[in-house]
Amino acid sequence: MLRKLKKLFVGELFGIIIILTVIITVLAIFGEGFLSSYNLKNLLKTIAITILVGLSQLAVLSIGHLNLALGAMGCLAGMFTGYLLQSYDLPLLFVLLGGLIVGGLAGFIQGVFIVKTQINAFIVTLSFVSIYMGVVTGITKGEVFTKQPEQFQMIDKRILFSGLPLLLVISCGVAIILSIFLFGTVFGRKLLSTGANIKAAAFAGINTTLIVIAAHVMSGILAGAAGIMQISRLGAATPTIGSDWLLISFAAPILGGTILSGGKVSVFGTILGAAMMSIIVNGLFLLDVSQYWFQSFIGGILLVSYGIDKLRRGYMLQNQS
Amino acid sequence: MNKIRLIIRKSDSVGILTIVVFICLVMSLLKPEFSTFVNINVIARSISVMAIVALAQMVIIGMGGMNLSVGAIGGLVCVTVGALMAKMNIPIIIAVIAGLLVGLLCGFINGLLINRIHHFTNKLNVTSFLVTLATGSLFTGINLGMTRAVPIYGIPDSFVNIGRITIGGISLLVYLIIPVVLTVFLIMSKTGIGRQILAVGGNSKAAELSGISVSRVTIFSNMISAVLAGIAAIIFLTRLGSAQPTVGSEWLLFSFAAPLIGGTRLDGGQINVFGTVLGAILLALVANSMVHLQVSVYWVTFVHGIIILAAVGFERIRTIRSEERKDE
Lengths: 321, 328
Description:
The complex is a heterodimer of chains A (321) and B (328).
Chain A: H1 2-10, H2 12-30, H3 37-61, H4 70-87, H5 92-117, H6 121-140, H7 150-157, E1 159-160, E2 164-165, H8 166-184, H9 186-196, H10 198-203, H11 208-234, H12 245-255, H13 267-286, H14 294-320
Antiparallel strand pairs in A: 1-2
Chain B: H1 2-30, H2 37-63, H3 70-86, H4 92-117, H5 124-147, H6 157-162, E1 166-167, E2 170-171, H7 172-190, H8 192-202, H9 204-209, H10 214-240, H11 251-261, H12 273-292, H13 297-327
Antiparallel strand pairs in B: 1-2
Helix pairs in contact in B: 1-12, 2-7, 2-8, 2-10, 2-11, 2-12, 3-4, 3-5, 3-10, 4-5, 4-10, 7-8, 8-10, 11-12, 11-13, 12-13
């Protein structure tokens, strides 16, 4: 019986759910205004965007790469969407697709570059941050797009089922689709295999080139989606979008059980991780902690999650023997 | 065979040197303002900080890891030294030493955490990436939390004046780089610990098996890296005249670009100290030239990204070619 309980405990998601419940309870009691509809609404919208950012990073973590440029990609897509909304009168669907395509294109270029030059993904994506941000600021010259038609603003404002923001529903929907894709389709399986061991995957006949590019395209599209959501929320398209995404893009998946070594991926865990991060930040805000300490908290939480992961793995190894 | 290897290795630096000289010549012809003392000083002062930042990263790359917290450590040291001097009227020497100790502490924390969290199935650079990503945030958070993002003014004049001394028309700070660079070079090439760092970078498992304590090397190299970041921050402080909490926030890309351009291998085990410095000079020259050529500020970032990719691309071609030569 104890053994079974221990096995449950080792199940990563169980741990996070417990911690999450504890945090929410504490905040409900001590945090002033935590349970107010205004706060919850905002919190859920923030979580929605954080989920997409986390999933964007997850897409490349699944093949053992990382995408440092997802903030820049989100910015590119967001600014492009904002530009379209401001300057032309196009059907909403076109505009949204346009933004997502820009994100996907950015990921495509990056993926192709990585595959063709075989240069370390870290360096390539680090450089592409500069490249894409340079493109954004170079073209727009720091301009901000503020005109957004009513329909577009409704993406942010729409609340379904008397409580769930549309943004959150979209994010969860995307997460479900991604989950089905990764674990249910052949292509998804090939992706995970490539992540686990790229050489073995190549020997097994998987077109690893295609897989790598596809992963980066997915990351770009997801980042683009997050960028579009962000500009809807802000009501304006500014070049600062995505500038603070890097840390949370790693924190969400890692807190949720994914690790950089590749092969092990958890979409639901990423959702929980995103939720945990956003709730903690929200909690710090409500507890009157100076906003300047937020970053150190996130860093600290990240370190704790590494420690937990190490303990977990040690535990699992012990149990195997 | 060894002679050929030596020439190839020397040619790494020769390539960059040529480009550097080329840029200098072209720019002085195109824009006379380029070769004025004022401009040379501007470039030199920028290099005096960034070259050391580049070295800070180079040491960790040589060990096979990455240090994403160089900027954060720099910022923290900067505000610490600034606060000690301005708010608590502590003598300059003591404040500087305290700042460097803060740097050492940060580096120690980095190394310690990397050791604790490192799992044998991961690669070392993955662990150092994760840890320094988190500690970078932690240090920046502490920095901002203490200063509330407010710059610290009131740095004593005697300190700021150090930044104003010129010898032969060139700022003293530039001459300060020389002992730092030489020290790093000597440590990495002549001392036992330097060789151990490179051995771990080359193949950490083999290093461990041959008796090198990877955990000790990790801590030591991270401390060196952090101290260098601290030195860079202090030099920057003399230039700036006030302690800005944002110091270091732009250092990351540069800290990788300069070593890679200079021939340091990202996989670890092979570094090039003078190449790194040349890389820093090259990047500073490019940035400066673009200002003179009136390229929009916004495109400068873009160009930086392209340069890094080009540099790493060339390095890969070089590696592939030298491997082909080995097979011959």
